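ligand=flavin mononucleotide
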Amino acid sequence: MNKMLEEVVSIEFNRQIGKDTCLLGFRSASLASLAKPGQFLMIHSGRETKDPLLRRPFSIHRIQDRNKLMMLYRIVGKGTSLLSALKENDPISVIGPLGNGFALPRPNEPSLVMAGGMGIAPLFFLTQVLKRVQKHKIKMFLGFPTSQEAVLIDQLKDLNIDLSLTTEDGSLGIKGLVTDLLDQYLGQELTNKPVIYACGPTPMLKKIAQKAIKSRLRCYVSLEGYMACGLGLCQGCAVKAANNKGKPYYYVCQDGPVFSAEMIDWEVM
Amino acid sequence: MAFLPDLSVDIGGLKIKNPVITASGTFGYGNELTPFYDPSLLGAIIVKGLSLKPIPGNPPPRIAETPCGLLNAIGLANIGIKAFIEERLPSLVKIKAPIITNIYGHNIKEYAEIAKRIEKVDRIAAIEINISCPNVEEGGMAFGTDPDTAAKVTNQVVKNTTKPVIVKLTPNVTDITIIAKAVESAGAQAISVTNTIMGMAVDVTTRRPKLTNIIGGLSGPAIKPIALYLVHKVVANVRIPVIGLGGIMDYHDALEFLLVGARAIQVGTANLINPKAAMEIVNGLTDFCMREKIGNINEIIGSLKTK
Ligand SMILES: Cc1cc2nc3c(=O)[nH]c(=O)nc-3n(C[C@H](O)[C@H](O)[C@H](O)COP(=O)(O)OP(=O)(O)OC[C@H]3O[C@@H](n4cnc5c(N)ncnc54)[C@H](O)[C@@H]3O)c2cc1C
Ligand SMILES: Cc1cc2nc3c(=O)[nH]c(=O)nc-3n(C[C@H](O)[C@H](O)[C@H](O)COP(=O)(O)O)c2cc1C
Ligand code: FES
């Protein structure tokens, strides 16, 4: 069983860094020491509230100075707008780290990191770690709807990786989707096959996974599921498993959130 | 030196050290929350509803949040009684609290068969029957909505076990007291009130139901007043102990149910949000009794003042 804990922490900063996009930081040496890229946290207001009732899942976005954790989130509904209104020193209750996290590449295996929108949240942490443990190549395809949503570009450039940027309206980088870049990339002759790490909207993950399976590339996707607990209690977070006779569904909070592409039944996604 | 109040209660022959039990479907298979606390501290634990064969469950989304409530259509997904007994039960050895299995079948024969299997397992202290699920042979109407069917299911389980049998009622009926009396006559040693209340939620932008299953069961604080009312009604109409549940989030909520006459309470949705909820309710009840100089929790049970 994974080591996990519940802590009430105070927010160190919580600021908007792009359209409807916020970065939140807090300190917890114990969570920081346990966390692996791809794992997530379940967050609830640190003050008693029954609406919203459930915790919300967020990826661990970054770890700094061994004790600072960050979350990157988009305001999409009630929970996230209330979260965005919290100020410095406000308490939040955090459970984590949860889930399996990304499997790291084999020695000398280049990685291709593909992020769509908020998909960059867990992939930033992964890239940080890859950069530290892996001296060789990291390629990143990063896409946003428009330049207004584009965040973290400078920080990613600082990591010194091979970064290609897309926006759907062409207001920044290449006009199109990250999956268009994948088409071009797979069209080339690849001498050293990369392992793909992807996170973003489900249609994007579906495209990437299906292409990776066809091209026989190792590919890990981080999925979002509707979660009530994140702890394996409710069986709410089901995703359909591909030709897995014993197990018709995987549970995102227990078996994931990171899955190898061929584990998932993409037809129903 | 402060005295420690006696929180123990007897539910139909099952003696438990305090009246706090986890509700089926919200506590996994029993040990998921051990990183947070030792479930031995609880009165008893009820695990996920088990059927004769494994059930895959409904396609996602299976859950949707509503104001102060949780709608679920898990579809009774479970690993089946065999896998539970062989693979999960052994990992619960360290848990000293009694383990109660919640069971359900597609027909009355399946209920009887599961009861027989459980009878052979010493580690399982009691059976809670879920009769809120559809009776496949009778056109899919829930077993728990017809007094005769509810009584037949109860009777079949009671006949096949020596363990205490608790029947968990559905609130989705016109008069819950009729069902309560029927299962009492059929030999139930205790009754749990209540299971989830049928509900739905719609996404107006997509014009789709928020649950793939369209309808689901509502739980959480949103249903607490209804659950209290149902417990109040059932307590007045049966002699066997009633276990109250529905929206209990803290020891205050638990006290409300005890005052209304519940002999014990279950903690459901609260576990999903606050993994330590059940343990904190035990502590809260202990502190409350100490503060109020109540030596025995039975002094509270059913002590609602109505005049
Ligand atoms: C493992 C995991 C990691 C995540 N990491 C991040 C992250 O790092 N940053 C981030 O911004 N978001 C992340 N999410 C998604 C985030 O949890 C949801 O956006 C959030 O729960 C929405 O809450 P809300 O109350 O604001 O929205 P609600 O009012 O609940 O819903 C608003 C809208 O969001 C959609 N939605 C709600 N919950 C989810 C969900 N779990 N998955 C997909 N769509 C959902 C609903 O369909 C609805 O359209 C993650 C989800 C999971 C499962
Ligand atoms: C996710 C979920 C799964 C559930 N599964 C079961 C089940 O398998 N069997 C059962 O009898 N009740 C099940 N229930 C109902 C609960 O045990 C409980 O009766 C109900 O949720 C009301 O209590 P609460 O408001 O404290 O959650 C489930 C409830 C939830 C939220
Ligand atoms: S969210 Fe409850 S089991 Fe995964």
